[in-house]
Amino acid sequence: MNNPNPKELWSQAVTLLRQEIGDEPADLWLKPVEVLRFENQVLQLKVPNKFFSSWIREHYQKRLSTIFKDLSGHDINLDYEVSKDLRTVLAPADPIAEPGSQSDFPLSELNPRYTFNSFVVGDSNRFAHATAEAVSKSPGTQYNPYFIYGDVGLGKTHLLHGIGNSMRKEHPRARVLYTTAEHFVNEFINSIHQNKTEEFRAKYRNLDCLLIDDIQFLIARDRSEQEFFHTFNSLFNAHKQVVISSDRSPKDMSPTEQRLISRFEWGVVADIKPPDLETRIAILRKKAETEGFYVPDDVIVFVASSVKTNIRALEGSLIRLKAFSSMTGSPLTVDDAREILKDSITSESSPVRLETIQQVVAYKYSVDVKDLKGQTRTASVAMPRQLAMYLACVMTDLSLKEIGRAFGGRDHTTVLHAREKVKRRVESDPFFVELVNKLQADIQSVDKQ
Ligand code: ADP
Ligand code: MG
């Protein structure tokens, strides 16, 4: 076979390779390839962009050579030519080449306040922070891709911007793009409607670093997920950094493209947990300081102990306190803070059963529930009893009268007295606040089961 029909040869080879690698990669990487000519034992192929040629070279070239040899009896070399039509499309999307260009797809802005410096490090986020810094120092290397997951309001977006800001500083010409998965999906759909998918692809596949936030949004959205899969492959294959955030771990996702999820684990996966009390205090101190807002220590501890699960809520609390204190001009007290933050503090918890309060408090102080309801006045029983009454006041919708009845038929004034007494202690003793908060959390978790 001295002069094989090159198109025929290529199509036979692709058919054979397809059986080995499966339809999807074949459609993705081989189908878009066109055969140009066959000269001097070189098969000249046209590929949509350079990622295709490097991908094919890296992944399929060896196998293709063997197949060609089997089919034609000769050694056949492959050579690639990047499609010209596409290259002209690629150029204007390159922000380095044309900084002032009015692209349809401008690179999004990074929030200058979200830096590594403004990020408070604690046990809950130490690994995520350290690896994020490492990514920004050596993008596209062993930390690629970098996957951060954690609940809402724990600093994922902050770290993504932190990586972007730091990379821009170190490499001012790097093409760094921050986007949300939601934006990616919308932009992709628009590009289909406007016949601009080439521009869309050129934008996303020509980056040095793609920071994509809240990826859970595009998982299981068939076409968008596929598109992202291709974007990911292009970037990854070109050793470009990909950073992904999510509200859940790769294992907890249900994708249509299983291989996308496994790719998420190729680099580093870091999770962010809710911050502990110490970190919450440090975050509040830092924010207050940045805002030039003086907050007494006991108020800081009160807020940090009351708002536990979400750093955004922590910040929101501080903003409300600031607004209040700038109105009154007087120093904040724990009492003010409790009043101002009433809604956000109670919104963290749902009503619980009074029996649960009694059981948890009794257990904590090693007394019997029937002692709490009984008449004993020794301190070892009276104190937990008052505490349980106080908790019943703040954690249930019951009236003073109803609470009194549940504590061995006591008068509502007794409940009121207990509530005020415990309240005073809560306001003056940050460590007692922490204890009360722990009890509340235990009570909540018992009632959730
Ligand atoms: P997520 O993206 O995980 O929902 P964000 O990154 O938007 O959370 O964080 C919510 C807010 O809390 C932001 O204003 C962010 O700056 C702040 N924040 C989160 N973690 C920290 C931290 N460790 N130190 C300082 N601020 C933080
Ligand atoms: Mg976020």
Provide structural commentary.
The structure is a single chain. Helix content is 57%, strand content 10%. It is an alpha/beta fold. The strands form two sheets. A five-stranded parallel β-sheet has the order 5-6-7-4-8, with helices on both faces. A three-stranded mixed β-sheet has the order 1-2-3. Helix 19 packs across helix 21. 36% of the residues are buried. The site of magnesium ion has 3 residues, from helix 7.
Largest sheet: 5 strands, parallel
Termini separation: 74 Å
Spatial sequence of strands, sheet with the most strands: 5-6-7-4-8
Mean pLDDT: 86
H/E element order? HHEEHHEHHEHEHHEHEHEHHHHHHHHHHH
Rg (C-alpha, Å): 31 Å
| Number of separate helices | 22
Helix content: 55-70%
Which structural class is indicated by helix and strand composition?
A: alpha/beta
**Uncertain regions spanning at least 5 consecutive residues:** 86-106
- Number of separate strands: 8
Bound molecules: adenosine-5'-diphosphate, magnesium ion
- The rough form would be described as elongated
- Strand content bin: 5-15%
